[in-house]
Design goal:
With 141 residues, the chain is mostly helical. It has a single domain, classed as Tetratricopeptide repeat domain (Serine Threonine Protein Phosphatase 5, Tetratricopeptide repeat, Alpha Horseshoe), CATH 1.25.40.10. 81% of the residues lie in helices and 0% in strands. α1 runs antiparallel to α2, α3 packs parallel to α5 and α5 runs antiparallel to α6. The longest helix has 20 residues.
């Protein structure tokens, strides 16, 4: 799925969609890898302007992970695509709420890092974390 994600970031949405769908089909049983493939597909759908589809995929994944009580490393990207898709679909209040919860979770995780410099790098140098905080600053103040 890393390849599909990189293709999406590069703007090759046709190839990214093909890779994400192949990953989903190849992983028919629900698993974290299957969830990651669906998360990438949600990002592709959002980039394609298909925000309602992206929001539905992301909403389902967020609910699944919450039910599992597990937070995989890709969860920050999922919360971002979830909030961005909701916003693009016109559900701005839901998007802000999702982003506020994601920011609170990220900051709580950062607070558990005892070294200030490593905590700063976690928040500012991890691209998804920095993007989440920038988006939260723009949308939530």
């Amino acid at each position: 799925m890393l390849h599909a994600s990189l293709l999406c970031r590069r703007g090759d949405l046709v190839a990214a969609e093909r890779e994400a769908l192949a990953g989903i089909e190849g992983l028919a049983m629900p698993s974290l890898a299957h969830d990651w493939a669906r998360s990438v597909l949600a990002r592709v759908r959002l980039a394609q302007g298909r925000s309602a589809e992206a929001a539905a995929i992301a909403e389902d994944l967020v609910a699944r992970l919450q039910a599992l009580g597990f937070r995989p490393p890709e969860a920050t990207e999922l919360t971002l695509v979830h909030a961005e898709a909701l916003h693009a679909a016109g559900s701005t209040d839901e998007a802000r709420a999702a982003l506020a919860a994601a920011r609170a979770d990220l900051l709580a995780r950062a607070d558990r890092i005892p070294e200030a410099e490593i905590r700063r790098c976690f928040l500012e140098k991890v691209p998804e974390n920095a993007r989440l905080l920038a988006l939260a600053a723009a949308w939530l103040g």
